[in-house]
Amino acid sequence: MPSMRQSYTVTVPEEPPAAAFPFLKQEMRRKGSMSGSMLVSTFVGLLINQAKNSKSAQGLVGLKNLGNTCFMNSILQCLSNTHSLRDYCLHNSHRRDLNNNSRTNTALMEEFAKLLQTMWTSSSSEAVSPSEFKTQIQRYAPRFVGYNQQDAQEFLRFLLDGLHNEVNRVTVRPRGSVEDFDHLQDEEKGKKMWNKYLEREDSKIVDVFVGQLKSSLTCSHCGFCSTVFDPFWDLSLPIAKGYGEVSLMDCMRLFTKEDVLDGDEKPTCYRCKARRRCTKKFTIQKFPKILVLHLKRFSEARRTSKLSTYVNFPMKDLDLREFASENSINAVYNLYAVSNHSGTTMGGHYTAFCRNPNSGEWYTFNDSRVTPMSSSQVRSSDAYVLFYELASSSRM
Ligand SMILES: [Zn+2]
């Protein structure tokens, strides 16, 4: 690490582990101050050496269970192995986004970044306690207070939403205006709607996780087709029926299957100016860098039952081009993390299987325990939330 031997004029960072990354140079230069520069560069050097020699240098650190918090630990490990999000935290880039705004509360993002920094740079291989982070997530989403069994996918949504709000690049949201894009071609309309979304919601979290779904409504009477574009943070896939096992593609096809809206559900046709029987179909207009697929194993009615169907999903080359609205050139994904739920609705346990972004090896994260695993063990009927990375955005 010769570049780190240079002396930078920096203030002593409060969280030294973050400074163990050379890409901080710029950040450090920006925040100029004369104090402690030599001290920091020596300290940084030490930290790097320590980190290199420990297991934790590779993010292989367990998280303590704080009383039924396995749902949280499972999701945190999946996010910790999401390399662009991890790097955002390790480079301290979130600070720039926080600092650009005079926000009253930025504690959730701060604690999340601090936790990831500890997981990736701590010199100890001891399990880390996420209690400070948990305090903050509870402030944001009080429903995660207490020690009840929670749903990992719901937790993921709350967490990403909370992080996004604290690093949203939009500080003043434009006043809502009713613009009519209906005269435009679908592709153009999709782009306009996406830009409109970014005018309000624009963050690193959106860059990474958010895609755009197109729903097309076709009138059975006159054939008029109207389209609606909506951002999505994940896709909740119904589990296809089948004997023994079903494939992830079966679930995707079920999710995008043409649906008939009739009876009370009849929408008003724009051309007929009357309520008509319509067909509705989803396609993906914009594929996100990270695609989160949630397998709907739990019944929506108060989680009273669970489907333990084995869903066969590909580890590599999940090709979703058939679900694209346009002839999209890039819709091939590779799996890098899975949040698993074992057991029943009454008593269950969450773990995570993650592929380490540095080594490409798979590990089981079971609260405080981290153990290597074979990639052939990743697929199981416990798989609940799947994390896929767009092939071209992968560094590996
Ligand atoms: Zn019509």
UniProtKB/TrEMBL annotation:
Its main location: cytoplasm. The keyword Hydrolase applies. It catalyses: Thiol-dependent hydrolysis of ester, thioester, amide, peptide and isopeptide bonds formed by the C-terminal Gly of ubiquitin (a 76-residue protein attached to proteins as an intracellular targeting signal). Its EC number is 3.4.19.12. It is an enzyme of class 3 (hydrolase). GO terms for cellular component: perinuclear region of cytoplasm. CDD domains: Peptidase_C19R. It is found in: Cytoplasm, Perinuclear region. One of its GO terms (molecular function) is metal ion binding. One of its GO terms (biological process) is protein deubiquitination. The keyword Aminoacyl-tRNA synthetase does not apply. SUPFAM superfamilies: Cysteine proteinases. Keywords: Biological rhythms, Cytoplasm, Hydrolase, Metal-binding, Protease, Thiol protease, Ubl conjugation pathway, Zinc. Residues 61-391 form the USP domain. Belongs to the peptidase C19 family. USP2 subfamily. This is Ubiquitin carboxyl-terminal hydrolase.
